[in-house]
Amino acid sequence: MEIRPVRPDEAGRLRELRLQALQDAPEVFFSSLDSERRLPAAHWDSWAGTAQGKVMFVAVEDGVWVGMAGAWVHPEKDSTVSLWWLWVAPAVRGHGLARRFLEVRVDWARQWGATRLELAVAETNAVARALYQRLGFVPTGERRSMASDPARVGIFMARPL
């Protein structure tokens, strides 16, 4: 399985994968399927390629995109890279892909001079929280309501590089 950045000409394909992720697991994302369906093409174009201090990686198996994970240099927190949009297709879960996505994003973050990674996870997503803890992330104490469902809470976690 190959993990690589999304190329500039693949913005439409990225949109399709993101909408698939939101359909599969709406309860774990801060955004909703409806809100992301309405995003303009320019939004998806901005995530395709590695310009502007952000990148979206995809996992590709036999030509099929089976996962994604993004990262961006946080504009307000020095030396911090935020991790976004981790999703692995149900058919390939449990095979270490989330860990591999972390490794490529760590490498990318180091190229940007980052010394800290942060992410947000749904408080009710025990599986993801446990995974992040195994990967060295600890809760920061920051919490916020999730835009996709304000009754749910997301917690922030971080780890040094």
Task: Explain the overall architecture.
- By secondary structure, the chain is an alpha+beta fold.
- The chain has a single domain, classed as 3-Layer(aba) Sandwich (Aminopeptidase), CATH 3.40.630.30.
- It is 31% helix and 37% strand.
- The chain contains five helices and seven strands.
- A seven-stranded mixed beta sheet has the order 1-2-3-4-5-7-6, sandwiched between helices.
- A hairpin with a 2-residue loop joins strand 6 and strand 7.
- Helix 1 packs across helix 3.
- The model has no long low-confidence stretch (mean pLDDT 93).
Any descriptors?
Aminopeptidase; 5 helices; alpha+beta; 161 residues; globular
What are the segments in which pLDDT stays under 50 over at least 5 consecutive residues? none
Total strand segments: 7
Per DSSP, the total helix count is: 5
CATH H-level superfamily: Gcn5-related N-acetyltransferase (GNAT)
Order of helices and strands: EHHHEEEHEHEE
Helix content: 25-40%
By oligomeric state, this entry counts as single chain
CATH architecture: 3-Layer(aba) Sandwich
Distance between the termini: 25 Å
Task: Report the portion of residues in β strands.
Answer: 35-45%
* The CATH top-level class label: Alpha Beta
Q: Main beta sheet, described?
A: 7 strands, mixed
Mean pLDDT, rounded to whole units? Answer: 93
User: How are strands sequenced across the largest beta sheet?
Assistant: 1-2-3-4-5-7-6
Tally of structural domains: 1
Q: What integer value in Å does the Rg equal?
A: 15 Å
CATH topology: Aminopeptidase
